[in-house]
């Protein structure tokens, strides 16, 4: 009886403090970020040789995606998935895995009609391992499929593994929030966010003998920043607590954007070479993050909601399918420079639209059942 009373009181307080779900104007910004990742991979293929790549604008766009993911997913958890951790995690799998499988199949078709010597031969084991490549369980699935070198069919899948690591942590937090021992779970949330930031600082700046832990914790401040903003907006953290956690996450995020090197993933932060381009990268990350915050507040004044939602719906598919689109245009045309980039972008939009109106549209009813409510209009 005491346990039931505690949980009932906690639900009552949560219902009283949780704002109703509302549409967030982030679709345009998300498509902008996906387009930056597209350009990061397209520019060298179509003959652009410059120092712009030193600014790491492609990875920086992914880092901003992590902030937005932390915000959007935490807000969804607060709004739709209280006491429903399995539904939350199931929805994430349904959202991300089938479009990823679609993209892997597209990539296999592209490699069949436009072979690339940079990719190893496609064996059944390698294809099977790649189909499960977006989960952090890749060491296990690689072993099950009998492959030592998976050879990523979609090189951008590393970011999806980071996303799923975040979902696992958040789902675990939702499980704990169901327990009466954390009836005062705002304090537990604050302690957890501080612990993650401290672990990141130790691992990224001082090192650890566990490279996998290093990889996932490297990107933690971005997610913590997004979660903190969502928690403050939904009154899950006291304003002063959220401010201090947010400032710490912001500082650690800027330091990561400044020191991260794509070619040196195992190097400690304080050993990273820092150049003028590194400061441009950190400034670009901060500017894009501020642009995202401004979009939340002001984009509704100039952007029709249906357009913003449409652009947002295309974003994930653009991220998944831009590499095969680039490869097709490069293989079958002699286009270089701006014409080549435009052709590749048009093709990726067509492929993304096809994925959105088939795979993603078919999954929306399943996701709504898991969510238990329609998305905000």
Could you characterize what this model shows?
The structure is a single chain. By secondary structure, this protein is mainly alpha-helical. 73% of the residues lie in helices and 0% in strands. Helix 2 (27-45) runs antiparallel to helix 14.
Report, as a whole number of angstroms, the end-to-end distance. Answer: 39 Å
| Extended strand count | 0
Task: Quickly give the structural class.
Answer: mainly alpha
Number of domains: 1
Task: Report low-confidence residues grouped into runs of 5 or more.
Answer: 1-18
Fraction in beta strands: under 5%
Discrete helix count: 14
Q: What would the average pLDDT be, to the nearest integer?
A: 86
Rg is: 21 Å
Oligomer: single chain
What's the SSE pattern?
HHHHHHHHHHHHHH
Choose one word for the global shape. globular
Helix content: over 70%
Biggest β-sheet, characterized? none
Short structural summary:
By secondary structure, the chain is mainly α. The chain has 14 helices and no strands.
